[in-house]
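Record type: monomer structure entry
Structure origin: computed from sequence
Chain ID: A
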Amino acid sequence: MQIHEKLKTMRLCKSWTQEDLAERLGWAVNTYAKIERGESDIKLDKLKQIADVIGVDVSELLNTSEKTVFNFPENCGQSNLAHTILLSESQCAHELDKARLMLAQKDKELAWLKQEGERLNEIIVLLKKVGAGAAADPG
């Protein structure tokens, strides 16, 4: 993931507009927007300033590995997540497939548990009948 893509993701995670971030930086909106679109190169001192405003270490922005974990000191956006994991499109597709398989397995387990519950209820009914019959015929 490129630096400008990370900047946009982090900004959106905080539920900020480009205007919000530009204002926090004391920059013109167009200046920040060009950086976020990847149309303008950014010097390290400016990148450090953005990182400080967003609340991350500048090294997190410079890391261009396929999978990056951003560590925000406060919650991300409206969610209660303190961390955001950014994945490539193929990694997202793979994670989605894994999640679907896990959900299918959970559905099977829930269906089995429901059947087990029904069987146990049948056993309880039978035991109550046997117990009522034994109580009626003391023997």
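Annotation 1: The beta strands are 68-71, 83-86.
Annotation 2: The CA atoms of residues 14 and 82 lie 11 Å apart.
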